[in-house]
Amino acid sequence: MTDVSRDTPLSDDEQLAEDLAGFYADPLGYVMYMWPWDTEASIQLVELTPEYYERFPGAKCVNPDCPSKDHDHAHGPDKWACEFLDQLGEDIKERNFDGTHAVRPIQNSTSSGHGIGKTVLVGMLIGLLPAVIILWRMA
Fold it and tell me: How far apart are alpha carbons 30 and 45 in whole angstroms?
């Protein structure tokens, strides 16, 4: 998301701010951007389903030690988490929050068994807050 109207290139920090601001209403995009799904074996626990792999071709696994038999795949959050993050993005867009005027709160719940990654998802969402703050400051 480089600003092509500038005479000078963006600094690394400015580029990161631009990139993060682009994820304002795209929590799943943010999660796929911020974590090294393509190379970090410790988080390569779930292969993305085809619909999500098609959206994030840059996440293709390049880890030579990956145990997957299929070399054309990508890793990311569980399918339920991808769906949750996409729905959250739709809820954010629907409310059109501008950083100033109050909007209806977003309330979601997930009922599940033990150990499916609900806390990990919360951690990923907490990481999204800087993107929202950056967008407000840029507005």
Answer: 19
